[in-house]
Every structure is written in structure tokens, then in C-alpha cells.
Amino acid sequence: MIMTNGVGIDLDRFRIAGEDGGARLHDLRAIEGAAMFERFQTVYRMLVSAAAAAGVGLDAVDLRVVDVFASVSREVAVSLCVSAGAADRQVHHATEAVERLPQVARLLRDGVIGVAAFDAVILQVTGVEGPDLVAAIDATTAADLAEMGGVSRGDADQSARRAVAELDPDGLRAKREARGKGVTVSHEVDGSDVAISTSPEDAARIDTSLTAVAETACKHDPRGKAERRHDAAVALLTGGRFACACGRDDCPVTAPAEEIAAALAKIVVHVVADAATIAGDADKAGWMDGFGVIDPHHVREVAARGDAILRPLDIAGLADGAAQAGNPYRPTAACDTAVRAVHGVCSEPGCERPAWKSDLDHVVEFNHEDPAAGGATCPCNLNSKCRLHHLYKTFADGWIDDQIIDANGVIWSEVTTPTGYTVRSRARNMWLLPEVGSVPCRHGEPVAPGVVDDADQPSRSRSRTKAKHAYRMQIRSRRRYVTACEATARAADLDSAAPPPF
Ligand SMILES: [Zn+2]
Ligand SMILES: [Zn+2]
Ligand SMILES: [Zn+2]
């Protein structure tokens, strides 16, 4: 067998300056995106010339077009050593990139989004018909992605979904309805699967219910979380009983049925939506915790459910007191809801843990001994962090996280890695509750952040934690100063074509 030589990729060709670390990884991802963009363009040009050679137009309803696609796909498969199915997907993505999503594809070329993010956009736009509609979704999504800072696959997925939900709500509803409902059981050689096709809200309730029931077992239960969730599902679906399996005489779970009933009674799926949309006077997308963007019809369907409880969110009232009287550490219910809704997911870039399954974190640490001196319990200083990233923030050395509200009231999360690379990302759901970024602060600048971030966290030596929080304060204020200087410099040079510094 004769193999062609490898290309002999020399990274110096890409002229990536600097040391190993976050900045270099970011640049490498940008190169991957640009290379994928070039691959799509190449595959598309191959299609165009194959069609010309066959004497057909690519948009023609002509059986020979199928041959053109098949021939180019086969060449892609052979050249890349991939299966026919994988090659078909490449050809499909190439036509999407050139014909339907040229503006989003340019962000791939320019390193603004990665390959996974682009794939997510293609998936959301699949099945949307009509050139004007697709062009509008392409333009809206590209404009949104270009302004959000660090773009994860989830960010791109939800941005495109919102564009589809608001520009083509009927199409999205038709897709939801076509999916249907049902339960399928499949038996494989090594086991069986049960799959329930249902609405996002019922899927979220099932998911949360299983975890809640699984957690009624005591800490000595020998089963892992996945196995307890499985046992809870089988018990609930077959009318059986889920019980702690520790086998100890002193197990504190004495009345499992009552504990399960109590756990199930507390299951809530949070949906944040605009009141005018619920009333049918507007068509704004909504947000379902654990699922993401939902179309305006879906918002109204959820609101009309017999078990739905509607609670108005008093954003104006937030300004008067973000913290609950008598407990300056705990935000009010309105503040808690507003912060979780505007972040939507854990604030760590790339993390998709839902906000209502995350902790609320004081970005600048709260000072329990002197609340006025520490980080405020205010939307400006609170964000959602999943337990893992909350733990990392509290105990990992060398990392800095910050939250900034810019002059337009846009909330940004910022994470700086130990190698000094900073990723700034816009709060996922600024579009849903833009007012949250403009809630006026009723507190001073923090001067002495607290040493205890969360009483439940495992603790290390107090002095060490205290030193770290003081160090982070210094770094945060230095970064904020640099950012302010950059903003001033930019404002003085409005015609500069240079991209913003984040
Ligand atoms: Zn037990
Ligand atoms: Zn997280
Ligand atoms: Zn504030």
C-alpha cells in the first residue's frame, strides 16, 4: 500500500507567540476553526465543480444532483479516512456553512467560535426552511455570538435556539409536536433500556425527582448516585418502595415513604418568562432551568398547566434591598431568582450545570464579621456556580474570578487561569432580564472580603484563606483598573478597527 506523506505540520507556521497556557490553547482552537472553515469551503467548491461537470445546478431537483453529492462525499470519505455517514455530514455542514449560515461560519474562520459551537448552531437551524428566515437567524445568531466574549458550545446552542424561537416560533412548535410522546423499551445483548419521550418540563421534573428520591437514602448507603437514581425510577414506576440499603440498625431513615413523599412535593421546574408573552401580547422566548430557551408558545403552554404557579418578579424592588432583613448574607427571593435567571447556568465558561441546581456565590467574598466591608449581597456581586466550580473557586490556588457590569448594564463573568489567560463571558441570559444589570447598588466598595465563603465547604487554615482572599481583591481591583483604562482608550479612538480587548 502506498501512503502519501503527512503534511509535517510545523506549529511555527502558525506563528503562535508566547508560552504554553490558556492563551496558546485559545489560539490553537482558533486555527482549528479557520482550518475547518477552509475545509467547508473546499468541499463546497468540489460540489460546485462536480455539478458543473455534470451539467446540473446544485439547487436543481434532478437525480444527477444526488450523484454529485454522492461522488463528492465519497472523495471526502476516502481523503479523510472516515465512514460514508461521517463524510455525508461533512458535505452537509459545508453546504450549511456556505449557503445557509455564512455569517456564523465567518466567526469560525475568525476564531470567535470553535468547531463544536458551529456544529451546535447547524443542529438548531436544521429543518428551518425559507431563505429569508434562515438569513435572519444567521444574522441574529452571528451578531449575538460576536458580542458575548468566550463562546462555549452551550452558548452557541442557546443563542441559535433563541433566534429560532423568536423568529420561527411556529416552526419550533411544529417540531416539538412532531416529536410525539411515548415510552420505548429495547432489549440488548447485555441489558435493556427504557426511554421516555416527553416534554422538556416533564423530563426536568423526572430528572429532579429521581435525584430527590435517591437522596433520601442515608450517607452509608453503599450504592452510587447513578444506581440509587435507577432504583428510585424502578420503584416509582412499578409501585415498589425505594429504601436506604445501608442495612444499619441506626439508619436515620425511619419512614422512607414519608420522606419520599416530602421530597417529591418539593420538586419545582423554574421557568422565567416575560409577562406580556404569557398574556399572549408578545412573543419573547423564555428560559426553562435545566433545558434552556423555550419558544413563546411553549412559555404559554407551561403557564397554562394546572400545576403551574406564576410569580411576578419584582426587579424594581430589588434596588431597595437585595439582602433579606436580618440576614445580609442571604439574598431575597427576588434577588435569588433574578441572579439565577440572568446567569442561567454555572458562571464558569463551558459549564452547563443549571442555575437552580447550582450555588449562589458571592464573587467578592462575603464578610460575616463585618458585612459592610466584604462582598455585597447584590446582583452585581452574585452569580451561580455549580458545586464543583464553587469548590474550585474557594480552594484552588492561582485562579481569579470576577464579575463586572459595564457601562451598558451588561453583566460579565471573568475567569483568569493560573497561566494568566482571562476569559470574559457575558451572563448567558442578559437578553431575558436586561434590567438586572442596571439595578442600582446600595453598598460601598468591598475593602475586606470575608474568609468564609460557604459554611458547608471543607475548611483549611483560616489565615491561608484570608491571605488568598486579600490577594484576589488586589488582583481584581488591578484588573478592573486595567479594563477601565482600556475602555477609556477605546472611547478616545472610536474609529479604531481593533477588536475589543475581550
Ligand atoms: Zn441508611
Ligand atoms: Zn460549573
Ligand atoms: Zn451592587
UniProtKB/TrEMBL annotation:
Location of region: Disordered: 449-468
Membrane-spanning segments: none
Domain of life, per lineage: Bacteria
Residue intervals of the DUF222 domain: 37-311
Protein name (record): DUF222 domain-containing protein
